[in-house]
């Protein structure tokens, strides 16, 4: 990849189709916009229909020639994930950007009873990717980009208590576990695609410290106004803008010669141009990634079928 990679390096994407989760704001919006700007047809997968519609209108205003479509997707509800995949049923899918997520929320459960951060950040995207796998396998050069975080280093997954049913809930540890799960998923998916002989690329990215509404959501839910002000100040003074925070995911999605299981982030750690990023050794542990995969299939009821790659 280019030494100072930026959006000018994104190639022509005319004829390609992309799905971006959480595309109504922040990193997801910028990612969707830049893919559309280069000619891709982009599905905006958004939980809130009204916010999604506002984002779509804004994107059209910024990129009048954009080819976009708004679809409702709630990653915290497996019924919504299944409905989204069934209604979309794409004949081809070049890019799946697993971007949406929640951060450091107070203890909550998804519609299916999973701990909210693990359920949304990992299980929702695990199910979505599996359900869209046939379209990915049928599209030459397709990529799955899963957005993790530098804060995955806070904690590895706990295979004995994935849903915080037996231990005291700690929001930042839960967040770290969910982001480690993203990287373990990327690792295991890359392994299984290689075994199937598929050229679909599984890679991960993280934005560093980017100013989005992700940081303030948890404290706002609890009415912690002082903490919300502190976080908002950090976003203004320290964080890089979403325009820059989205670059690692865009790089992972479009840069040539990307290697399977790569982890792309700001070269400065929190800020800077995209490059290969540090990741905790546990996120490449084959035993853990395989066990998490098995548990994820059991919890979601979604089993991956790689036979299309074999037939191709």
From TrEMBL:
Protein name per the record: Oxidoreductase
Keywords attached to this entry: Oxidoreductase
Record bears the keyword Oxidoreductase: yes
Keyword Oxidoreductase: yes
Family: Belongs to the short-chain dehydrogenases/reductases (SDR) family.
Transmembrane domains' residue ranges: none
One Pfam family hit: adh_short
